[in-house]
Specification:
Mean pLDDT: 82
Structural class: mainly alpha
Strand content: under 5%
CATH topology of the largest domain: Arc Repressor Mutant, subunit A
Number of helices: 7
Largest sheet: none
Order of helices and strands: HHHHHHH
Low-confidence stretches: 79-97
CATH architecture of the largest domain: Orthogonal Bundle
Distance between the termini: 56 Å
Number of strands: 0
Number of domains: 2
Shape: globular
Radius of gyration: 17 Å
Length: about 170
Amino acid sequence: MENPALRAEFVKLIAQDQALIHKVCSMYCRDPEERKDLFQDIVLQLWRSYPTFKHESKVSTWMYRVALNTAVSSFRKDIRRPHYGSLSDMDLQIPSAPDTSAEYELKIKYLYAAIDQLSQVEKAIVMLYLEDRSYDEMAEIIGITKSNVGVKLNRIKAKLEKLLTPVYDEIR
């Protein structure tokens, strides 16, 4: 990308929407160094594809699609990465919540541990759901139909409930 105007436009875009990339990295990598590497890989893929981005969709939709595809591809290539870290080893990026009770914090940790057990596509759907993305946006980003998003989301919710109900019952 030798065009200085295009380069400046890209840098501005990344600066504005880097939180989106960080969320994807946090969802797929627990280790801080792996998150940094994935962040660089995603920015590189965005850089490579930016000249061909036609602005037919929202910039954030395009960024999510590239970021998720890069994260999933990276995850599949890296067989050294453990699938599930122990709860004590997790570096959860949980924003402070209005309810900061110990029970609430414990529930959040277990929720993220359960999300970590989902498939790559399921993680992507959960992340987009938690971002309040519409089914249409999720379908476009993931590359599936809107009705398939609804079906998958219902199955994911059931799976998470099955994983979390015994744990939450113990906490109470």
